[in-house]
Amino acid sequence: MDCSSARRVSFGCQPHCSESTFYLQTFGQLNLAIAFRNGVLVVDIIEAKSLAASDQGICSCYVKVGMAPDSGGATRQKTEMVPDSRSPVFHETFLFAVGHEEEKKRLLFTAWNSAGSTRKLVGCMSFGVCSLIRSEKEVSGWYYLLGEELGWTKHLRVDPDWTHTSGHVGEK
Description:
With 172 residues, this protein is mostly beta strands. Helix content is 6%, strand content 49%. The two termini are 27 Å apart.
């Protein structure tokens, strides 16, 4: 994936403090909304933009969402694939029942490029289910797609008040 980009990000609430700033490689952005209602996580995957393309510059993307860890992939659901677009629009809603066991898991989003003969991971992000169900407000907005190792444990919100190359790291 050669179209990734470095983003300046900050820990805490001081985005312009150089001691808390570092650069992080991102692979596009995903616009989503997550709400917890009556024991169910309601996940809206709205759209993506600036997706890292294949070596040929082509991106035919879909997004998978599910609980992790998940042996056998029983909770995974996916959007329809949008061909030839680095800014696909999905507008799809997924429901996840949350019991005691799911509270210990993460809600994992993975974006995939199926252009060409193989599918490749574009990027991913995740949210702790426990923090999602205890949150008083809906999680919504743009989030960066991160590399596999970091994305399995974190999410990074795109902050509209900062420059287009900044964000805020969250572990929720």
